[in-house]
Design a protein that fits this description.
Two copies of one chain form a homodimer. Chain A is α/β, with parallel strands linked by helices and 433 residues long. The first copy, chain A, has three domains: 147 residues, 3-Layer(aba) Sandwich (Rossmann fold), CATH 3.40.50; 207 residues, 3-Layer(aba) Sandwich (Rossmann fold); 39 residues, no CATH class. Chain A contains 14 helices and 14 strands. Chain A has a six-stranded parallel β-sheet with strand order 1-11-10-9-12-13. In chain A, strand 9, helix 8 and strand 10 form a beta-alpha-beta unit. In chain A, helix 13 runs antiparallel to helix 14. The first copy, chain A, is globular, with a radius of gyration of 26 Å. The interface between A and B is large, with 128 and 128 residues. Strand 14 of chain A pairs parallel with strand 13 of chain B.
């Protein structure tokens, strides 16, 4: 079970922050073959891979959406309602992230601006399998729509009958997705990278996936396609104090542990008594879980750490930089000033990670494996890029010209200086004519 | 010289958008050796590499800044003044990019927020050599300061006497840089990745460099360190119409061409006559350039294209996605609505790229090689990450609980549902006690 560590020294922090390493290199050759094949043979190659990996022979990867409506999709009305509520919250939070373009007159005659422009074409990958990740459809398609991306392609593998899970379809249609392709795995990522007749090439690919999809996204970058962020197993760090509730912390840790055997579960507590109580709660709650064996494996990689001093505790937490950080306390706002590195933070005893995973409004696509030190989770920015513009009048270049020439000559770039000189000379000539 | 293409068909666009490919793989083994060596032997390895590559034996890579002041640095007062003017403009434009954190009550009892937090530790790499890139110091250190990064380490290789160029030193001190390390090449990137006693490990590395530095930055990502953006040779695309000035366009193209033999220079014009005039101007202006032979090599990879139709022209330009886009026209704002993909845009006949390279206020660290389809140039965001927070009250989880449970069960993640259920149950118990 979970490893206990009492008051580690700061020298131990680096080791405690280690995640299990994954060797991507082993996969790369196989993925490169798939990429070459898709580049060369396009949709014919897609058909072969779908038959091989998904066990279904499809004429086309295009899912025909004609005649399909939200009303006729076969999921319970409870689930429809839940997806709608989540949609509304996620939409509200991401719409509030719209920024206004800025424009600054840095000097007389010189105007600089920075404008957000949607990424034209984006791909969203949603894994298949028994647990349909319809929540991820919401998390990626909603900000893509708000950002105004011109073309949004959703790829997801077909089941053995050539269908996709109706909850994925429901979420996609609710988000206004118009193009769904029945293709999974590395072949989906390759198709979004090179484009085929049926699947357009995109500028950026979003979404989770198994190790093959992850390696394929990595490879896509070599061909000029951006990805949402580096991938790693999901993780949570729960920080608790004297006011936290062991049963809640245990439930939150188990929610993370059921994701996969490689999930990272960390508990940092200010006192040892709470730690013992929480571990006992875990033992109790785990027994009834359908994914008990997965959760047990995840817990065996996990750590429960006692650090009494709050400064030291957050020194460790910031070094760990958790994807999810739960502040299990009656006074969570006391901790906010300490937080420097985290993907998403859950404040208070009544704020489980599940809320953000599904429905509160925040995004659940977040940096793992310590990347929260430098990366943001997916937000509206992820679907846009910023372009800078500048306008310079004749007066402007007259004022700034000498500065540019002096700096260009200082860097020994004479042609850079000339680009200003030819303009100043023409203006001088115009004065005398 | 430059290749002429008249009215290409849309089918040719993809080929015209090709940049020369660079094979990074060849370098990787050598770079990995340097990484292993720095990780194992720290500052001792740094000393060896500095002696080997920079030809100077240094006791320490730490540049002692004691007693150095802006006044005593030995560069001309003209250059000091120019750097100050550039500093003021760049500061003004980047300070205006500060955003306010957002907070949204998505439902009663549920508050979601998104806060910008500075990246704690950043590294700035400035190449050495004869042309000192002090302008790049401004472009990276100014936004790092404004963002509030806690630690900013500047690495730059020493010359044969163990000094750095005084203009680089001046720009660094003006920006408030307190830590300069005399180390260059892949060994600098490795040191910023792993940390040594003298050089702190950072979360993100910025800055240009030769192919070894580029390959090292690529490798740093495998160790969890972010980089500013994928690197490629610099490039400009000049778009001109009947109102553009051939001498100006020629000067702008040559300013790009002098950067390096692999620079990309593209000219897109609405009429052939202007194209001929511009090519003649290039022939004339190139003869006086100190870096003439480099510029000639760059031009031999370059293309001058006539596309009369403005819609088609921008279809091509957006597909090319230039790092720098100059709209050489008396009415540049007519073109703005067409622009979808570019790093930085220069509007009008009196707005040379050199202005943005040095002093107008915009940043010159920009996406190359088509990455402008998905990446922004460096702006204030590049030195921060966004963390989402949520607070949920008892009433909040009461309202949203059913939604979360339904969705979690829909994804067959029972422990996710339990994290809500344990809370709802406790609240129910409290009601009856």
């Amino acid at each position: 079970m979970i490893h206990k560590i009492i008051e580690p020294s700061a020298l131990q922090y680096a080791e405690l922050c280690q995640r299990p390493s994954i060797d991507q290199a082993l996969l790369t050759t196989g993925i490169q073959t798939i990429f070459n094949e898709i580049k060369r043979n396009g949709d014919a190659a897609i058909r072969n891979y779908t038959e091989k990996f998904d066990g279904i022979s499809l004429q086309s990867s295009v899912l025909d959406l004609n005649g399909i409506s939200l009303e006729t999709i076969d999921i319970s009305s409870d689930l429809k309602e839940a997806i709608q509520t989540a949609y509304a919250n996620i939409y509200k939070f991401h719409e509030a992230q719209k920024t206004t373009d800025i424009e600054v007159k840095t000097m007389e005659g010189i105007t600089c601006s920075l404008r957000s422009v949607p990424i034209e074409k984006v791909g969203i990958y949603i894994p298949g399998g028994t647990a349909p990740l319809f929540s991820t459809v919401l998390m990626l398609a909603i900000p893509a729509q708000i950002a105004g991306c011109g073309q949004i392609i959703l790829c997801t593998p077909p089941d053995k009958l050539g269908n996709i899970h109706p909850a994925i379809l429901y979420a996609a249609l609710l988000c206004g997705i118009k193009e769904i392709r029945l293709v999974g795995g590395a072949q989906a990522i390759a198709a979004l990278t090179f484009g085929t007749k049926e699947i357009p090439a995109v500028a950026k690919i979003f979404g989770p996936g198994n190790q093959y999809v992850t390696a394929a996204k990595q490879l896509a970058q070599n061909y000029g396609v951006a990805i949402d962020m580096p991938a790693g197993p999901s993780e949570v760090l729960v920080y608790g104090d004297a006011t936290s509730v062991p049963a809640f912390m245990a439930a939150d840790l188990l929610a993370q542990a059921e994701h996969g055997a490689d999930s990272q579960v960390m508990l940092v507590l200010s006192d040892e008594q709470k730690l013992e109580e929480t571990l006992m709660e875990i033992e109790k709650q785990i027994e009834d879980l359908p994914r008990k064996s997965i959760a047990k494996q995840a817990l065996s990689n996990s750590k429960a750490i006692v650090i009494a001093d709050v400064n030291k505790a957050f020194e460790f937490i910031n070094q760990y930089a958790p994807e999810h950080l739960i502040i299990a306390s009656e006074k969570p706002s006391d901790c906010i000033p300490y937080i420097k590195n985290a993907g998403s933070v859950f404040l208070g005893n009544y704020c489980p990670e599940s809320a953000g995973d599904y429905a509160s409004g925040t995004n659940h696509t977040l940096p793992t494996n310590g990347w929260a030190r430098s990366y943001s989770g997916v937000n509206l920015d992820a679907f846009t890029k910023k372009i800078s513009f500048q306008s310079i009048t004749k007066d402007g270049i007259q004022s700034l010209g000498k500065t540019i020439i002096t700096m260009a000559e200082g860097e020994q770039l004479q042609a850079h200086a000339n680009a200003v000189k030819v303009r100043l000379e023409k203006m001088k000539l115009e004065l005398f004519t």
